[in-house]
Amino acid sequence: MVKKNNKYLGWWLLIFLPFIFFKSGYAEELEQQPVSLKVVIHRLISDTDGTLIDNGGREIDNKSLGGMKGLNGVTFSIYEISEQLDSLMEQGKTLEQAQLTLIQTDHQTDRLVPLTTVVTTSEMNQEGVAAVDLAIYPNKRQAFLIKESGSPAEMNVKSDQLIVITPVYSQLGEQMETVHLYPKNILKTATPPAKNELPKTIQPSKEPKIWDYLPKTGELIQSKPFLFGLLLVSVGIVSHCYLKRKHF
């Protein structure tokens, strides 16, 4: 009886073991297959710096944006920097510390090859929107750099770079398949150069006469007595010449 039971057990193992190994191998193969993470970029501009946005990955309605507007024509380049993340983790940094370091690092993108490049346009009655699908692997930590690489001519300030580390989880602990990001900056209009003003025309002053000049200089304070005396001297000279001529 025991031998018979062992025989049945052997047959059952022979039938089901291949399915068990097949299922395990299939699950491992699925983990090695990339899945898609959709990243939606909302490029915003603001007149002031008073509005704070929670970049937690969820979509924010327009009413919560505090009057900020979308900006079309902005180019974003996406790079994978997973090796930099792994290097920081190997140095003993936590995931949060490594992410902060990556955010504060001025990445030399001229040495990196972008995975893709997107430009913000108008979508679903919203301006300044661009979407990209990133290939990520389940249960594998990856880091992506999203950097503004081009903007319209009227914008002289670019938005800050963003770092996305996958997998991304919501506040409820659920893995997210779509992530919304809101890079922004204050709108600063370039100050137009000052116009070259023509020099003001200087009118030549009237040539001073003795009657105007002498009292104003302070050289002769009493001008009328001076003129009266000059007149008396002139009359005296004329009278003297007349009398002298009469005697001859």
How would you characterize this protein structure?
The structure is a single chain. With 248 residues, the protein is an alpha+beta fold. The protein folds into two domains: 32-186, Immunoglobulin-like, CATH 2.60.40.10; 210-239. Helix content is 33%, strand content 23%. The protein has five helices and eleven strands, in the order H-E-E-E-E-H-H-E-E-E-E-E-E-E-H-H. It has helices at 2-32, 82-90, 95-104, 210-217, 223-247, and strands at residues 35-42, 44-46, 69-70, 75-80, 116-119, 121-123, 126-136, 142-150, 162-166, 178-181, 184-186. Strands 6-7-1-10 form a four-stranded mixed beta sheet, with no helix packed on it. The chain has a four-stranded antiparallel beta sheet with strand order 5-4-8-9, with helices on one face. A hairpin with a 2-residue loop joins strand 6 and strand 7 (126-136). Helix 2 (82-90) packs across helix 3. The longest helix has 31 residues, at 2-32.
